[in-house]
Amino acid sequence: MRHLILGAAFAMLLPLSAQAQEAGDAAAGEKAFAPCKACHNFVKNGVGPSLKGVVGRPAASYEGYSYSAALKGSGITWDEANLHEWLKNPKAKVAGTKMIFQGYPDDKKINDVIAYLKTQS
After folding, report:
1. Which of 33, 70, 81, 121 is an S-S bond match for 96, by CB 3.0 to 4.6 Å?
2. Please, which residues have CB within 8 angstroms of residue 55's CB and are 6 or more apart in sequence?
3. What does pTM read for this prediction?
4. 86-112 b/e (C-beta count within 10 Å ≥ 16 → b)
5. Partners of residue 58 on adjacent β-strands
6. Burial of 120 by CB count in 10 Å (0-12 exposed, 13-18 middle, 19+ buried)?
7. pLDDT tens sequence across 72-101
8. Where in the sequence is the domain holding 98, given as residue range(s)?
9. CATH code of 85's domain
10. DSSP reduced 3-state for 58
11. Is residue 13 part of a domain?
């Protein structure tokens, strides 16, 4: 019985440790965000839309930017899961997007960028 209780407690902790491993580092994310600065900032639209407050925002909703029809019709809300898929491969997430960024192959870097974006609300 004791082993069952300990086993159950350990199984409950596994998702928590996986989440802790997946938590990004905002300082590292700021550095990883450097290529994004060519098109995005947190003040106004540029080549790409402002990313101020992007986490939790519906896709294609920042005023004054001309989004692709594909992104407008995506129905996506930029939660962490959707941002992760987008930053991994934007064209796979939303075929027909205007964004030319190829994506980050490294999940750690993606998690870091998301952590940084969360600081820019």
Report:
1. 70
2. 78, 79, 80, 83, 114, 117, 118, 121
3. 0.81
4. bbbebeebbeebebebebbeeeebbbb
5. 77
6. middle
7. 999 999 999 999 999 999 999 999 999 999
8. 24-118
9. 1.10.760.10
10. strand
11. no
